[in-house]
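lol forgot to send this yesterday, sorry. struct tokens for the thing we talked abt
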């Protein structure tokens, strides 16, 4: 079940448009922070997805554009065999999918943590970095929701 605090105002929820943009930016930050962990050569679909996400933040891309870019990033994950690369691609896919449903930003963060763990790096350092990137307006929302999901996913 989706966390209703992430439902946008235009869909009858409480999430303001600016908060939705902040969640998208934060999701992108999380995904971009682990892009360097993706295999030997970066797949252009991942870069494209991040570009579309940033365009959406600025009002220059539609939710449909973001959906298509997200599907491309998730296809990269399905085509990959390395667990770290899969997690990175999933992080990117969720970041751009935030245009459709704001709680996908949590997926971007959680898959970034999974990528870091798979690469043998510190989850705590990554989580702290993610927290530092959070705008004050969404900090409590994100931290409480992410903590619940982390426990469920055993990250």
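and heres what i got for the seq, position by position
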């Amino acid at each position: 079940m989706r966390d209703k605090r992430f439902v946008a105002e235009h869909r009858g929820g409480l999430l303001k448009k600016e908060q939705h943009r902040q969640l998208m930016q934060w999701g992108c930050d999380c995904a971009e922070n682990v892009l360097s962990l993706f295999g030997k050569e970066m797949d252009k679909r991942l870069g494209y997805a991040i570009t579309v996400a940033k365009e959406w933040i600025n009002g220059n891309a539609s939710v449909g554009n973001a959906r298509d870019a997200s599907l491309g990033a998730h296809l990269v994950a399905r085509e990959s065999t390395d667990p770290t690369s899969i997690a990175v691609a999933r992080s990117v896919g969720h970041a751009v999918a935030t245009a459709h449903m704001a709680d996908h930003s949590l997926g971007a963060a959680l898959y970034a943590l999974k990528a870091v763990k798979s690469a043998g790096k510190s989850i705590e350092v990554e989580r702290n970095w993610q927290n530092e990137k959070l705008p004050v307006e969404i900090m409590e929302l994100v931290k409480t929701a992410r903590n619940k999901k982390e426990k469920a996913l055993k990250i």
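The chain has a mean pLDDT of 94. anyway ping me if u want another try
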